[in-house]
Task: structure prediction
Amino acid sequence: MAPDGPRAGRTLLRIDWQPGSDRLEGTCHCGAVHLADGPAEMWDWLLGHSASHLPVRNGVIT
Amino acid sequence: MSSFPRDQWYVAAYGREVGRELFSRTICGESILLWRTLAGEVTATSDRCVHRRFPLAEPPSRLVGDQVVCGYHGFTYGADGACIAVPGQTRVPRTARLRRYPVVERDSFVWVWIGDPDRAEHTPVPRAPWLDQPGYTVVSGMEPLAAGYRLLVDNLLDLSHETYLHGGYIGTPEVAETPITTEVDEQAGVIYVSRRMADAECPPFYARSTGLTGRVSRWQDIEYTPPCLYLLHARIAPVGALPNADGSDPGAYHAEVVYAITPETERSTHDFWAVARDFALDDQAVSDFLAEQNRTVVLQDVVALNVLQRVLDTEPAGYQELSINIDTGGLAARRMLARLVARTAQTRTTPAAAG
Result:
């Protein structure tokens, strides 16, 4: 289940809303972690970061 | 450009809606004729006669055996959409054929494929097995929504609105107060949003159906497969009760809340809803209560989203919104839907793919 730990999957991106805080913690499937104050900023970072190491062909993850 | 992702499976109807009466529903702007053959198979074709576009679901069009006869001039079609008779001549034009849609009946739904038919067999139909599975009792319905499908996606991906819009039914203060975890599986094309309330007020929807009183543990685990299928795995249990290590969970009550979000037009949506429960299986009073409660909740959303759509239609282009933490899942859905729409546009402009 999601809050108990990340799901398996090489293309999984995860954002945790830190309990007791307003901050978001994003984790790329590669393990890189990023903190942000809002979801738009966080998705910009996660999707931009993960795009650098996903096997993409013609805009589709393969 | 259309906002609909194509090359996708969409729920067109419940299986119970499709029988030996001609039935039409518009999906992604395409009017589709549905009916069941004498052998019980669902067939899906264009709902427009190739001759003068008369709607085939409209009387006096009629079903005769496994043939559809247009009520205007008598063009007659088989279950495969091929025209087999026209009035006054023996030669049937070679191009006289209704567009046929790939169709699958599964989990009580009738799914149709909108897009290139050759791609359908390589794309699995999303599953909601609880809707047609021993061990579950289901209530379900469909409400027309006069708003674009993306407003319903926003609504369902952020359940904090339950606290404000659905108070007295499914909303309690803890829903909006509890942080969420959001996961996106880019390859599988699935978005997960999880909200686990360890000690929460039990809303009437669950208190009266389960018999639990006082505080409860309430889990809401969303699994959205864009564009159409939304699952909410709901778990209600006494405070402190957790599933066993082997996954069994005898101390809890489970409801699989299913929505199929099917665009009708750019400004209207078929809002299919269902609640499958694993408790009080034979209790008709619980079924009646949950059906009435969930329909009421859906209609509360319908009223709100209809208003929102009307207001947004008057806003100047490029109006601003503000997203906060509760919108993390909704933003993920928006981005995934935008990618699916962009892929549709790319496919349709690529000559090799257009076939």
